[in-house]
Write a structure and sequence with these properties.
The chain is an all-alpha fold. 56% of the residues lie in helices and 0% in strands. Helix 8 packs antiparallel against helix 9.
Length: 196
């Protein structure tokens, strides 16, 4: 089993969560590649015309189903809310309530045109990152949800720095810095980054 995750990339997993790894992989790079392939399949499903018109991405069941599809070939717990406290995110006991509030927020923002579509999607993305509902994959899941909301509203998907955000590097650091700025209520950097 690879050392999951690498220290500068993701939220640490408990030994029990690591035991949920489905494929037999030797390195973190192999895990990243395996997850990337799994996520690409989920992305194709989610952004397909039929799914965009038929399903409601701003529902609790969709949030879980999307995570499940993104990681169902990688983790046995895909689509299941975390059961352990992490170094970030709300407490386990607050996940469902906070997610419900965030879903209500994004629906209200869109229906009442409180913000433009980009800002609604990015605000929701940020709230999902803060909630950190799943043991792992929260940032990738939140970015895909933002893309889905944009596409469902007839806007282009986001470019997210036009590169892979998983490995440590300048682009990932820019993304993380933009999230930290959003922690202080300023979403300008994350909005700009999402379209960069």
């Amino acid at each position: 089993m690879p050392n999951v995750p690498n220290p500068d990339a993701n939220t640490p997993l408990t030994p029990e969560e690591q035991d949920g790894l489905i494929p037999n992989l030797a390195t973190h790079e192999e895990l990243n590649e395996w997850e990337r392939d799994n996520i690409l399949q989920a992305r194709q499903w989610a952004l397909g015309d039929r799914q965009l018109t038929r399903l409601e991405p701003m529902s609790e069941s969709y949030i879980r189903e999307l995570h499940r599809r993104m990681f169902d070939q990688t983790w046995t717990w895909a689509g299941t809310y975390r059961k352990t406290e992490k170094n970030l995110g709300v407490s386990v006991a607050d996940i469902r309530e906070r997610l419900g509030q965030s879903l209500g927020n994004v629906k209200f923002w869109l229906e009442n045109k409180i913000y433009d579509v980009d800002e609604c999607a990015i605000r929701f993305h940020y709230e999902l990152v803060v909630i950190h509902a799943f043991p792992n994959g929260n940032g990738r899941h939140a970015r895909l949800i933002a893309d889905i909301i944009a596409a469902k509203c007839g806007c282009p998907v986001f470019s997210w720095g036009s590169t892979d955000l998983i490995p440590a590097g300048k682009t990932r650091e820019t993304y993380l810095r933009a999230l930290r700025t959003a922690d202080n209520g300023d979403l300008k950097e994350i909005l700009k980054f999402a379209r960069s």
